[in-house]
Amino acid sequence: MENILIGLFIIAGLLFILSFFQKDKVKMVEKEVEELSLNFYQETYQLKNRMKVLEEEILVEGNAIEFKPVRQRPGKNSTKVNEILKNQVLALHKQGLDIEQISKQSSLSLAEIKEIIK
To answer: Which residue ranges run through the membrane (predicted)?
Structure first.
């Protein structure tokens, strides 16, 4: 009986010592998640900076060059074109253009432009 208890204590001690040398999987997973989140934040920061640069370029070019009208094609892309036209109309309105100028540049009627602006 004493031999069994001594053997169990020795095994317990060895397992306890081995547990210090094992790699902690939770720490590895936490480190990977932290790296992924840092990469995600870096990429979103870079994308936001690129968006700002592109928006500034569009605004500069928009003031110098008149927008060409975009004609709506029937089919799958009609909703996308509508969204693009709406965004274009809203951007022109924010720039201070009046409805007639927006109508010329976007090839939409005055009623459609008024509806989008509201």
So the answer is: 6-21
